[in-house]
Amino acid sequence: MTIFKRLLVATAIAGVCSTGSLAGEVMIAKGVKSIDMELNDEKFTIMRNQTAGNKISALYETTNRGKPQPMSLGKGVETLGELEFIDYMKKAQTDEMIAIIDSRKPGWYDRLRIPGAINVPFTGFETKAGAIEAMEDDMGVVQKEDGTLDFSKAKILALYCNGYWCGQTPGMVKNAEFALLRMGYPAEKIKYYRGGMQAWTSLGFTVVGTGK
């Protein structure tokens, strides 16, 4: 193959890969350009914005970040990509046993977030009372009269925070003094969207908030 032909092939490949599909199309998955949802009293459309000049929020445009978080937060805890996370969002519309949770502090949540997510700050798991309150209010856990916790109706949690480098979801799941796993929450019901807001915004997915 001549150098000229190689350049033509490389250019053609770049045209396909630049949008994740055929040039000029922006897809979420094969054949899917947008998804209409209604979740937690919010109506929204998940889609990707790759229009010329569109920029990632200033909250996530730098690489001056903390250390990368592990790919897994513990045995049995599933790590999600974007498509898997969106699938849980779709299911949560009709399944009350699935909760889409933003584990960041309220200041982050109010500035920019994934639509349909509820805010359950990881800081609540720094005390036993805070952890139990959060699990009872938003996760389907019941504290019995003898003080023990009943996880029989615990919800599937799809959790995210700022992204690969952010320790807020890892804190809620395993690192805080009264983290979910330490309190006995079933690992198989915890789903970790590791990419979080960093990945979500870099792909141009729909967000709520100004980012300011």
Describe the structure.
The chain has 212 residues and is α/β, with parallel strands linked by helices. The chain folds into two domains: 1-32; 34-202, Oxidized Rhodanese, domain 1 (3-Layer(aba) Sandwich). It has helices at residues 3-17, 82-92, 106-111, 128-138, 168-175, 180-183, 196-202, and strands spanning 34-39, 42-47, 78-80, 98-102, 118-119, 142-143, 149-150, 156-160, 190-193. It has a five-stranded parallel beta sheet with strand order 3-9-8-4-5, sandwiched between helices. The chain has a two-stranded antiparallel sheet with strand order 1-2. The protein has a two-stranded antiparallel ribbon with strand order 6-7.
Write the layout of secondary structure elements.
Elements lengths: L2 H15 L16 E6 L2 E6 L30 E3 L1 H11 L5 E5 L3 H6 L6 E2 L8 H11 L3 E2 L5 E2 L5 E5 L7 H8 L4 H4 L6 E4 L2 H7 L10
Parallel strand pairs: 3-9, 4-5, 4-8, 8-9
Antiparallel strand pairs: 1-2, 6-7
Main traits of this protein?
Oxidized Rhodanese, domain 1; disordered N terminus; alpha/beta; 9 strands; five-stranded parallel sheet; two-stranded antiparallel sheet; 2 domains; 212 residues
CATH fold-level assignment of the largest domain? Oxidized Rhodanese, domain 1
Q: Measured on Cα atoms, how large is the radius of gyration?
A: 19 Å
Helix content: 25-40%
Number of helices: 7
The stretches of 5 or more residues where confidence is low (pLDDT under 50) are 1-23
Q: What is the SS-derived class?
A: alpha/beta
CATH architecture of the largest domain: 3-Layer(aba) Sandwich
Regarding quaternary structure, how should these chains be classified? single chain
Order of helices and strands: HEEEHEHEHEEEHHEH
Strand fraction equals: 15-25%
3D shape: globular
- Find the CATH superfamily of the largest domain: Rhodanese-like domain
CATH class of the largest domain: Alpha Beta
DSSP summary, beta strand count: 9
Mean pLDDT: 90
Strand order within the widest beta sheet: 3-9-8-4-5
**Major β-sheet profile:** 5 strands, parallel
User: What is the number of domains?
Assistant: 2
Distance between the termini: 51 Å
